[in-house]
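Long-time lurker, first post. I've been practising inverse folding by hand and with some scripts of my own, and I keep getting stuck on stretches where the structure tokens seem ambiguous. Below is the full token string for one chain I'm working on. Before anyone asks, I'm not after the true native sequence, just a reasonable design that respects the backbone. If someone could post their per-position residues I'd love to compare against what I wrote down in my notebook.
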């Protein structure tokens, strides 16, 4: 009896600390806040693990072998041959201009588009249109009418084109005996005419609609034809040997 009485007194006794009333939705907010902190912490960890992105260093550009040949072999030979006081006085290639005339463009404009595509494939650079500077009634030519296309090569593309022309294209000409030595302009610049574009390996013979020729001009820094000729000769230009 005494035990039951004690239990009853304990139940009736008022608790020292009453529990606070629960606010509806408080548990959900607390849970969401905790999950937000966790996700934020994971994001920081992932960023720290990834670390700063460092761009990989690009490999140095390959020097064209004709340019390398000029700097190592041709330049010292020119300085010795003409007794230059400064190596910068020695002649060098400045640019190569490839010009393709398309007379058929007067009747069919598509022929000009085809020629521009072929010239771009040969040189590796987009061709620019050439337009008539004046009108010629006999040829039914109007001023400003496109009559051809051309490309001006400098830098690495110039040396690469020179390499392909001298070592690949020119030897493919039938009965090739060398290029003439008379085509200098008096100031060290040299021009040769090619009768067929199919000597270049970039042109697919089966897809050619018409054989087209072109003029290739080598613009140098030489002051005389003798200097320009010696420069091109040392750069392996296959000049025709004079007949004895």
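-- Answer (accepted) --
I ran through it position by position. Result:
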């Amino acid at each position: 009896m005494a035990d039951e009485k004690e239990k009853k007194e304990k139940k009736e006794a008022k608790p020292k600390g009453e529990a606070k009333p629960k606010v509806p939705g408080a548990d959900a907010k607390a849970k969401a806040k905790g999950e937000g902190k966790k996700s934020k912490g994971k994001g920081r960890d992932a960023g720290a693990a990834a670390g700063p992105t460092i761009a990989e260093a690009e490999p140095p550009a390959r020097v064209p072998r004709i340019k390398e040949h000029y700097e190592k072999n041709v330049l010292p030979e020119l300085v010795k041959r003409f007794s230059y006081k400064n190596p910068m006085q020695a002649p060098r290639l400045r640019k190569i201009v490839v010009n393709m005339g398309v007379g058929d463009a007067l009747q069919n404009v598509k022929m000009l588009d085809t020629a521009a595509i072929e010239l771009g494939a040969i040189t590796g650079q987009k061709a620019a249109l050439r337009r008539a500077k004046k009108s010629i009634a006999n040829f039914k030519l109007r001023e400003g009418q496109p009559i051809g296309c051309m490309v001006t090569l400098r830098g690495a593309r110039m040396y690469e084109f020179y390499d392909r022309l001298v070592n690949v294209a020119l030897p493919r000409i039938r009965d090739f005996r060398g290029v003439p030595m008379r085509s200098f302009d008096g100031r060290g610049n040299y021009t040769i005419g090619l009768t067929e574009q199919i000597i270049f390996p970039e042109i697919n013979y089966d897809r050619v609609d018409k054989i087209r020729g072109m003029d290739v001009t080598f613009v140098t820094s030489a002051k005389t034809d003798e200097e320009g000729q010696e420069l091109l000769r040392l750069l392996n230009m296959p000049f025709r040997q004079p007949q004895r």
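A couple of notes from the structure itself: Confidence is low (pLDDT under 50) at residues 46-52. The helical segments are 2-12, 26-50, 65-82, 109-123, 155-169, 225-234. Happy to go over any region you disagree with.
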